[in-house]
Amino acid sequence: MRKFYLSILLAAAALAGEEYKAEAGAAPPAELSDSIKSLLEKQGVKISKDGKPLSEIWYRAELPAPKPTTEANLTLPGVPHGSLLAVIKVEQTYSDRRGQTFKPGLYTMRYSYYPENGDHQGAAPQRDFLLLSPAATDTDGAATPVFKELVEQSKKVSNTPHPAVFSIWKEDPKYFKEGSLEKVGETDWVLMRKMGGLGLSLIVAGKVEA
User: Cβ(148)–Cβ(80) under 8 Å?
Assistant: First the structure.
């Protein structure tokens, strides 16, 4: 009988799943370069998982100067490739949506988009992503690395042939809720924040099979 009740409890826990919450955070870390720090908001967003600190994210205070592109299927077509958009401090081992894990530490989050070569079908409706790089070596806030360079930087975070990525997009105004962190679908947790007045959605936790 005891085993039966234990099975029920374990099943209930599995159904409940992981819980993520967002709250106001602190100032950007002192160890960031001044070039990076000067671009960020003065207060971050703390993300907790099942009541334990998971990460803290500092968004860029203003969007970078727009640069035209001919790339298709982007929700942020004016953002120059490689632009710094945020910084994340990871407090415990983290997984991106591909299941790649990366260690606690401080990382920059730069804008990119996956190539339209058929290898990323189903990854997301849009091509917009943020790629992580080690903040210790990524110190120039004005830099806009090309795709190949940014991918090589991000592989140092994932330690796999694929970069460490977070899905981001310009949110439809009718769905946007400033500061909210909500579960969308079966696995994704979406953080909604404004950057320079533009509503953005960022998947801070989730899973994709692509």
Answer: no
